[in-house]
Amino acid sequence: MAIVNSGAATAPSAVGVPALEAGDHLTRAEFERRYKAMPGLKKAELLEGVVYMPSPVKPLHGGPHILLAGWITYYLAQTPGLDAADNTTVRLDDVNEPQPDLLLALQPVAGGQLYIDEDGYYAGTPEFVAEVAASSVSYDVHAKLHIYQRNGVREYLIWRTRDGEIDWFRLEKGEYVPIAVDGGGITKSSVFPGLWLDRAALLKRDGCNSPSACPN
């Protein structure tokens, strides 16, 4: 089972509104009410009705995060009809409101399932989510994987920084299966044509992690 950060809330809440606490069991509406009342809080997520509050970000997370963001941004700049976001809340369903490290989605006019609702939040399901996790025991690898799978996120990438591994899954018949690496060491998205990844280069923190970004 994933470990919930059990520390106290890190920012004061508005008068009369209880502070968010890791491990709280809340409805999505109550989670949002308490989150909004704590403007100093940088990240909290609701997963299966339970509040998760990650620890402050360290270089082990921040460095890989910016490399993944650069990879996605490069692809976004060359591909019309897409939206991408960094650390943005998504209303997946009534008990799940994650804040993925990165997401990539088809715009609704292009057949995408993610949209901006009447409250200004993302709602629905992005086609691709990427998370940076410390290791295989992380809740990104367990709780979030099952939540994204159940909600129909078509591809899910996890960079396990302490393990030195990158897992990239695609949804097949309702289950995540690993995307195979081809003979050249490249992993290719089955949803977004041309979104390719050289895992070995990325794990070495080489900026040329996308073959198209660094031509010979």
Outline the structure in words.
- The longest helix is centred in the N-terminal third of the chain and has 20 residues, at 59-78.
- The chain is globular.
- β8, α3 and β9 (155-160) form a beta-alpha-beta unit.
- The strands form 4 sheets. The chain has a 6-stranded mixed beta sheet. It has a 3-stranded mixed beta sheet with strand order 4-7-6, with no helix packed on it.
- With 216 residues, it is of the alpha+beta class.
- The protein folds into 2 domains: 1-55, no CATH class; 59-213, tt1808, chain A, CATH 3.90.1570.
- The N and C termini lie far apart (45 Å).
- The relative contact order is 0.12.
- The protein is built from 4 helices and 13 strands.
Secondary structure layout:
Elements: H1 28-36, E1 45-47, E2 50-52, H2 59-78, E3 82-86, E4 90-91, E5 102-106, E6 113-116, E7 122-125, E8 128-133, H3 143-150, E9 155-160, E10 165-172, E11 175-178, E12 186-188, E13 196-198, H4 199-203
Q: What's the CATH class of the largest domain, please? A: Alpha Beta
- Name the structural class: alpha+beta
Radius of gyration from the alpha-carbon trace, in angstroms: 17 Å
Q: Please, how many domains?
A: 2
- In CATH, the homologous superfamily of the largest domain goes by the name tt1808, chain A
Please mark out the parts with pLDDT under 50 across 5 or more consecutive residues, or reply none.
Answer: 1-9, 212-216
The CATH architecture category of the largest domain equals: Alpha-Beta Complex
Biggest sheet: strand arrangement:
3-5-8-9-10-11
Q: What's the story with the biggest beta sheet?
A: 6 strands, mixed
List the quaternary state of the chains: single chain
The rough form would be described as globular
Order of helices and strands: HEEHEEEEEEHEEEEEH
Give the termini separation. Answer: 45 Å
- What's the average pLDDT? 89
CATH topology of the largest domain: tt1808, chain A
